[in-house]
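Comment thread on ticket #2218

A.B. wrote:
> Attaching the input chain for the structure job we discussed in standup.
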Amino acid sequence: MRVLGIDPGSETLGWGVVEGSGLRYSPVDFGTVRSSPKHAFSKRLAGIYQGVSELVDRLSPDVISIEEAFYAANVSVAMKLGQVRGVVLLLAEQRGIEIAEYAPRLIKKTVVGYGAAEKRQVGEMVKLLLRLKTVPTPHDAADALAIAICHFHHAGMKDKIAKSMSK
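C.D. wrote:
> Ran it. Output below, let me know if you need it in another format.
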């Protein structure tokens, strides 16, 4: 299974691809899709769509794992993040790619063991879990890899539950 983790952001969207099965996985690639705050927001969304579309074409993920929306102190920021998520979800649906959504606290708890972990802690655990020489940078990419890792840990449980329900 190949998972594209997405850490949505309207200026910097982090992405990371991890492949494997069960709890055995390894990194494929990671990076960011950047957009300029000087552009109209609709143009930024179009650029994000194009950037993620190119990633999907190049990396052929089986699943897109994305961070769920969360409550932000600034409503405007929360709305923009929701629109970025919408663009990614639309792309996944159009391409017939499975979608997995995880809450930020669950991602941190899965990867670090603590739901209120700091970005530095997430980065260090991603480095350890993926046996990387350095912490992935920028932190948006490290977060995206954590989101992909989270899917590997939870997808197996979902499969077990589904199989037990079908018996």
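A.B. wrote:
> Thanks. Noting for the ticket: The chain has one domain: 2-166.
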